[in-house]
Amino acid sequence: MSKRYDEWFKLQVAQQCLHDGTSLREVARQHGLDHSLVRTWQESYRQHGVEGLRTTYTHHSAAFKQQVLETMWREGLSRRQTEVLFDIRERGAIGRWERQYHSGGLTALEPKRKGRRPMTQKPPSPPPPPDDERSQDELLKELAYLRAENAYLKKLDALPGAGSGNAGQKAQTVQGLRHEHSLALLLRAAELPRSTFYYQIQALGADDRYASLKARIRAIYDRHRGRYGYRRITAVLRQAGETINHKTVQRLMQQLGLKSLIRPKRYRAYRGAEGYAAPNTLQRRFQAQRPHQRWVTDITEFKVNGQKLYLSPIMDLYNGEIIAFQTGPRPVFDLVKGMLKKAFGRLMPEDRPLLHSDQGWHYRHPSYRRLVVEKRILRSMSRKGNCLDNAAMESFFGTLKAEYFHLNRFDTIEQLQQGLDQYIHYYNHERIRLKLKGLSPVQYRTQALGAG
Description:
Elements: H1 7-19, H2 24-31, H3 35-48, H4 62-75, H5 79-86, H6 93-104, H7 136-158, H8 167-177, H9 183-190, H10 194-207, H11 211-223, H12 230-239, H13 246-256, E1 294-297, E2 300-304, E3 307-316, E4 321-328, H14 333-344, E5 354-357, H15 361-364, H16 366-374, E6 378-381, H17 391-403, H18 413-429, H19 441-451
Parallel strand pairs: 1-5, 5-6
Antiparallel strand pairs: 1-3, 2-3, 3-4
């Protein structure tokens, strides 16, 4: 639980940073505080005075939360900068709003009522008349219904996937008991309209002609470990000579309970470091007419049991192929250097690619500039605080983590490192891309060069 500080203490810390000439990190060390917290107090005091240091409890509307998020994404601000700009005192609030918005849209940002909802009181049902006042015919009818209901519930529980209570399972159960009990009593026990029952029986008979197709869909889904949705599975079936509509594949996957396990991807703002930067020559032109014409690179981080692993790849924008990559436990320059040497080994004497990156310190390092200049490669860098300028590589990182890292458990960094090698080989050689006419990156490059 985070510690609370009074207004006077925050004011003393903020004034010490602004007026005494002491560095922010030194002030944080003296008071035993996190430097990011001290920076927040300093900026809040600078922007809003003493009022900005007071603890307030404010309920924000969904429209205000949406305005905060849109401003942060549009201007490329960090969460701390956004908190100061809008005078939001609650730490972590913007991160929580961002997660809610991506999971449920604007509706998820609406303030929720606290406490339990009052339970609605149902009017008491009139007690049944005593058995001695009911006729023998009424008792026989009730006995027949209870027998039909008991048989229906037993047979429904015996079906695979029992408990979902869908109309198809109910109709299948009723159909199997029609020779023993009245259809009207069975439909009453299943709470199933008669028209729905006949529709489901007809649909179950029609679905039998898709039995072999369902088996092929499941085989493709299992082979790619749930990474393919109905569009990619449709593309694989068409490559195998199957003339099929994507809507049919989508409907059959819903019946089979198959759904892509990949979460929706989103960009995250990143503010680059200060210093020398090359111009943004790429200008978001993420297409290339030939191999080794335009490259993009970046570094991403993985965490396993408190340890970290860093991945530095280079992607060829011609076909989205990862042509070289290097992994290591620390984000040192040798990580990028090793990747460059592997990538340079793929070049022909006449190749002069454009190499695009962000403004990280690795790409402003003198050794990096020297290695690139020796190969006569033109450098390009994203604008500060704009991750969309390198969206192609950010998209690959999102795919890698969604399709591999978040779907598996790792005990050691070495296990993750070996798995990354296997996934990148799969990504290059087997995983099809709809933008590449349903081919994998290596298949697309090989086919294009063969045709040329």
